[in-house]
Design brief:
Layout: H1 2-27, H2 34-42, H3 44-47, H4 71-80, H5 91-105, E1 131-139, E2 143-148, E3 154-158, E4 162-166, E5 187-189, E6 192-194, E7 199-204, H6 208-211, E8 214-222, E9 232-243, E10 246-254, E11 270-275, E12 281-285, E13 303-307, E14 335-338, E15 342-348, E16 355-360, E17 366-370, H7 395-398, E18 413-415, E19 421-426, E20 439-443, E21 449-455, E22 458-466, E23 471-477, E24 483-489, E25 492-500
Antiparallel strand pairs: 1-25, 2-3, 3-4, 5-6, 7-8, 8-9, 9-10, 11-12, 12-13, 13-14, 15-16, 16-17, 17-18, 19-20, 20-21, 21-22, 23-24, 24-25
Amino acid sequence: MHWVFKTLLVLIVLVGAAALGINWYLSTSDAREPSRVAYLEHCVGCHGVGLEGSETGLPLIAPKLAYGDAVPKLMASITEQHEYLPADLSPSMVKALALYIAERRQQLPSIVESHRHQIPEGVVQSQYHNFTVELVAELTSGPYAIEPLPDGRILVSEKVRGLSVVDAQGIQGELVEGTPRIWSEIIHVRGSYVGLGQMLDVELHPEFLTNGWIYFSHADRCQLDCGTPWPRSMVRVVRGRLADNQWVDQEVIWSVHKDNYTVVPDGVAGGRLAFDGNGDLYVTVGGKSTYDNLHVMDTPYGKIHRVHGDGRIPTDNPFWASDDENTAASTRNTVWSYGHRTTQGLSTDPRTGLIWSTEMGPRGGDEVNKIVGGGNYGWPLYTNGLDYDAEPISIGEDLGLDFPLSETILPVVDFTPAPSLSNFVFHSGDQFPAWENDLLVGSLRAQTLFRIRIENDEVVEQERLLTQFGRIRDVEMGFDGLVYVLLEHGEGGSLVRLAPL
């Protein structure tokens, strides 16, 4: 028994040391980031540690820069106006330096800092409407999605707890009973849950008032029944009804063979839901696998899937094939579009009934996309972002992907630097009439709520309605015409609304 005790003690010490090492590595990663190191080596003497400038160099935080502040303009300025820089400074490092400057100018916080939130007091002024931000409810744990109900209540999904309801007075009720199991996190790192088996999105059927159907997505988890000793998970969609805080009449609407379940954490699962104008349901799945599967139609990863509202598969889906042409694990029949990285937002344009998405890039290259059936959205061969080590993204080439850019669907809006776009909504309601049909887009790292006006698939206006606000997980329209915003911070969350003056 003595040797057993010693063995356990050694294991405890090793696990503790590993945890401390991981925590140190993550907490110091920003200080070791290559573009920051390059800036301190080559630029700080003239432009200052905080971009404030010096006697020999202009401030880079000035409202306007002589050569422009977009990343391509900054890159041109670095190469054309700074002849003393090393000749071997690679084009990717020049871009990384431009991204570093642009990120500082936009006051993008670190991931840890982004978990701080501040609900503004008083009047917030914007181009068309002034408004206030009202706290509706403080939430128990880290949330993922909200869905307002016609009676003024709001459904809330919390990643490691499940589904609950906030009443019209802002009181969060107990968890809805009878839903599929939601699992606690495996580890909590830098304010984020890392786990397998989380709750994801929640969405009402377009005819909810008559049929009562509520849809939600979650990362379904298996272990021994997957044939492995460790847990794996995958996005699954169910629908059911609420009856006195009970989940009843459950039906599985979209799921995949357990061969497609993976150990990749649920943070990249996606699972966003939206109905188009015909009542068909769309489901996002992120890169919850190795990237070589994103362009393989028989796998679910890096794709947006489409089914009828009752789970039947439309035979006009772009890659549909008969049963005798498919394997049991194939998901090609539900694939609608592919080549997505991490689609964190999905919404329907009320004018056309078509689906749009927001997608996170790496360091740069966040996108707003119009989703086209059969469309290839390019990742990981094409992106405007860089890898986090300041090197070009070479994944697509390494995997042997070979298709011209002209065969991909380009983003309608590109965000470089990347604000970490989350979910969004097309504004519809009479409380803020001048925002009608504008996209209200949340972001995580940037803590910003964007308003984007798109006409004929081109951006004609872009405004930051709220900045330094908090990590925005979801934005939804209430049946009262108000805008509801969901914040996550640390181990909790806040539900707020924008109210006009």
